[in-house]
Design a protein that fits this description.
Oligomer: single chain
Helix content: under 10%
Strand order of the largest sheet: 1-24-23-22
Order of helices and strands: EEEEEEEEEEEEEEEEEEEEEEEHE
Structural class: mainly beta
Length: 296
């Protein structure tokens, strides 16, 4: 029996470390970052138009804003990004005292806050943390002792928040208090096998979590109770992040990376670093939910 989905190339790019994809329903465009390429990318799928903005440092993640432009977690801290014309407005450096760290995965919640986590750039120590940037530009440290922050997303009703430490190979669920932005009740949601680590995630309209799994060349769908119910495979072993997009939010976009791959590995996986588009059998009824927007 054939798989209930098909995979195509959305963007035949060769990002070193493609990450952080998100869909802008206003403009019908896909954004993502190349962390090591110090760049933000934008694709208009209907025309194939690609745009790229180069930054002076690595960028871990971006999110849409209520107005125009993006909010970003740069290597050194938070910033607002204007795209036309391009400009960077730096906001805060929560880890100025941790020079070996950089920001990584991030996403806006549906109450207008931007969340992003940090990691030890050498991936040796759990010196990372999870941060919440509020619309008034104040920030709070929400978790400590993290190796590699990833997988930030929320259930459709904003009652559950997900967060992962990739080195721990664990995705956690929290009770999310939407009115205050507090998180409580941390518990294990899912774990991955040795050699496969949880990277970026998104949630669909049915409340299922989709997690791109680095080293597995796949995106795994989890039921709200943590059961693995479906795998989508892509032709890049280092699948890194995913989001839903398209007119009806029924296309799953998946970023990938080629960082650290040997010439032989790249020969076996020539599409490593590309962005993929996954179309599902309509009978499955799989749809995403709109992205949150930072409240500025």
């Amino acid at each position: 029996m054939s798989a209930p989905y098909s995979v195509s190339l959305a963007a035949p790019v060769r990002n070193t470390l493609g990450e952080g994809c998100l869909w802008d329903s206003r403009t019908q465009t896909l954004f993502w970052v190349d962390v090591e390429g110090c760049s933000i990318h934008r694709l208009e799928p209907k025309t194939g138009t690609l745009e790229r903005w180069v930054l002076p440092e690595r960028v871990g993640s971006v999110a849409l804003r209520a107005g125009t432009g993006l909010v970003a977690a740069l290597e050194s801290g938070f910033a607002l990004i204007d795209l036309y014309p391009f400009a960077i407005h730096r906001l805060a450096t929560p880890e100025a005292d941790r020079p070996g760290n950089r920001f990584n995965d991030g996403r806006a919640d549906h109450q207008g806050r931007f969340w992003s986590g940090t990691m030890d750039a050498s991936m040796r120590t759990p010196s990372g943390a999870l941060y919440r940037l509020n619309p008034d530009l104040s920030w709070a440290r929400m978790e400590e002792g993290v190796h590699i922050s990833n997988s930030i997303c929320w259930s459709p009703d904003s009652r559950t928040m997900y967060f992962a430490d990739s080195i721990a190979r664990t995705i956690w669920a929290y009770d999310f208090h939407a009115d205050t932005g507090a998180i409580t009740g941390k518990r294990v949601f899912a774990t991955t096998e040795k050699g496969v680590v949880p990277d970026g995630s998104t949630v669909d309209a049915q409340g299922y979590l989709w997690n791109a799994q680095w080293g597995g060349g796949r995106v795994r769908r989890y039921a709200p109770d943590g059961r693995a119910v479906m795998d989508v495979t892509v032709s890049a072993p280092q699948s890194s992040c995913c989001c839903f997009g398209g007119d009806d939010l029924a296309t799953l976009y998946v970023t990938s990376a080629q960082v650290g791959m040997s010439p032989a590995a790249l020969e076996r996986a020539p599409q490593a670093g590309a962005v993929f588009a996954v179309a599902f059998d309509p009978a499955l009824g799989i749809r995403g939910i709109p992205e949150g927007r930072f409240g500025i």
